[in-house]
Amino acid sequence: xxxxxxxxxxxxxxxxxxxxxxxxxVAVARVGxxxxxxxxxAFLVMAPLTAGxxxxxxxxxxxxxxxxxxxxxxxxxxxxxxxxxxxFVLNAGSAVQRSSAEPIVQLRQLSAGIRLSDGxxxxxxxxxxxxxxxxxVRVDGPIAFEAAGGYRLDTTDAVVDLRRRKLEGTxxxxxxxxxxxxxxxxxxxxxxxxxxxxDGNARLRIVPRGAR
Length: 212
What we know:
Blueprint: H1 2-8, H2 11-16, H3 21-50, E1 71-81, E2 87-97, E3 104-116, E4 119-131, E5 136-147, E6 151-161, E7 166-169, E8 173-177, E9 180-184, E10 186-190, E11 195-199, E12 203-206
Antiparallel strand pairs: 1-2, 2-3, 3-4, 4-5, 5-6, 6-7, 6-8, 7-10, 8-9, 9-12, 10-11
């Protein structure tokens, strides 16, 4: 008789009977679901740290403390525009910023690419300090400027205003222009208009075109 009762059970009754597949599913779910939830939560927490793409954060500047540690960057690049809207690019082999509250960045192996009206120009120096607020570079040591048309300028201890395209040096300066060569104890230069003002022992040597 029990065999007859078993044979007359519906598929739903057999599925819900003790020891059936339903019991096995419930037993597995009782253990598996909490584990799966824990794995999912861990993934959501760790995803921003392991994601290959960019991650954005919105911070309240009134509630975020200023970082005290030093920031060090290899192969840094800064971009900006001058007063005429022309772009410039400042590259450095390394950059160190003392803190996020200080706009001064210590640069090494720096070069600045400037687009002038008649073509590109480049400034190079072994080291300098870049003020991100004023977009000025202060160089303690040698600095070289080269532009199209045979212009070259070499000086030391200078301040370069990338926004206004001006250079002012306190050390001895030498240079080459299409008309010849010059030297002086100090100089002020407008890089855009190619005008140079020499102070102290100014010398200009004009080379005739036929002698070149």
